Amino acid sequence: xxxxxxxxxxxxxxxxxxxxxxxxxxxxxxxxxxxxxxxxxxxxxxxxxxxxxxxxxxxxxxxxxxxxxxxxxxxxxxxxxxxxxxxxxxxxxxxxxxxxxxxxxxxxxxxxxxxxxxxxxxxxxxxxxxxxxxxxxxxxxxxxxxxxxxxxxxxx
Length: 156
Known about the structure:
Elements: H1 3-16, H2 32-46, H3 48-53, H4 61-79, H5 85-90, H6 93-112, H7 129-155
Helix pairs in contact: 1-6, 2-6
């Protein structure tokens, strides 16, 4: 847990439109309700089907473990994001590292496509030819970056 990670998480959640205010001091002591609420909200934003199939009841210890296990399994299967359940259950600053994994993915997606950021109904917008060309350019540059990163890793 570092100050930078806490600050980054609070700013990303604010940028994503999280409805509650998250203070920097919220994770100094264990706060499972906030971790569960923000995790459920992030998963709901990431994959609504997973959120719909997961119960958000966290009243008992068994329910909390089931909640975290279901979300961690679904995120690993559908998004290849591995979450450490022990750190999430601790609900302190170390849980922020795990929550930041999902938040960074959502934030990167929002930055690459700002037009579709939280349109509510999820209605498809008609894309113009210029935006399609822009997407192709971005895709080409990402493919180029992936190739160069792979080549540099091979030479190591």
